[in-house]
Amino acid sequence: MLDLAIIGGGPAGLTAGLYATRGGLKNVTMFEMGMTGGQITGSSEIENYPGQGAIVSGMDLMQSWPEQCQRFGLKHEMNQVSKVTKSGDVFTVTTADGKTQEAKSVLLATGSVPRRAGFKGEKEFFGRGISTCATCDGFFYKGKEVALIGGGDSALEEAVYLSKICSKVYLVHRRDTYRAAPSTIEHMKACENIEEVTNVMVEEVYGDASGVTGLKVKNRDRGEIRDLAVPGVFVFVGRDVLNEPLKQDDGTFLCDVNDQGEVIVDLRMRTSVPGLYAAGDVRIEAAKQVVCAAGDGATAAVNIIEYLG
């Protein structure tokens, strides 16, 4: 039986594995179907990770993590976990090939993925001018004009964040009204360099070999096309939480989740089910930064060691 089953091989899962095995747990397996490192490996430039002076790619940043995190006995099983159940004090981890393993504790660190808006050019220019993280990439557009697509709390909050860095932010939304809280909307409207471009559909984002050079939007009532010449487009139309392993046969979740499917945890990364923990972007109120995910993993591991006693 495993002391700890870690589901996910990003910064949260890797760090949890390091702290758990170095802290004395003997049977710890991390389930990750593909290459470890998480979503950050797809980023072209990272310059805000503490202690990393040079600007590096996400792949370069994560290159040494697996070896270090496996140094104390963490095992990596290249398999996808399809379901986690619990009977008594024991968890059963079922993988995609139908095999099962029992574990005394489980950490879910599967993360979440940005929801795609589906407009023309989104796939082609993703990572080359199209971003889903203002904190990560906003600095690259310092003093420039950018566009942001979305109308929820996250979108408006990120628009305000970008307004402090960029010369102008076009807030593009398909409706005349926003889904954000009134206080968030008021805060956004107070920013003089945010221009609201509402009741429009994104026709396409276009560019050249260097990346994005602009986007075209179409007014939903009049059909007019407006061309916004910007080098950066930020998309905030929601995230899909990768919580599938927690879904039970009856359609419920193994532990409490919120309306967006994010796992509800406390400050110790504990869920509503004893022995089940969640860390990184899969949990509520995640900052969606590598350093924060790693901190979550360390926090979870320390408390799992205490839980196992």
From TrEMBL:
Pfam assignment, any one: Pyr_redox_2
Catalytic activity line of the entry: [thioredoxin]-dithiol + NADP(+) = [thioredoxin]-disulfide + NADPH + H(+)
Enzyme class, spelled out: oxidoreductase
GO MF terms held by the record: thioredoxin-disulfide reductase (NADPH) activity
Residues covered by the FAD/NAD(P)-binding domain: 3-297
Cellular component per GO, a single term: cytoplasm
Keywords for this protein: Disulfide bond, FAD, Flavoprotein, NADP, Oxidoreductase, Redox-active center
Cofactor note: Binds 1 FAD per subunit.
PANTHER family tied to this protein: THIOREDOXIN REDUCTASE 1-RELATED-RELATED (PTHR48105)
The protein's assembly and partners: Homodimer.
This protein's name: Thioredoxin reductase
Encoding gene (name): trxB
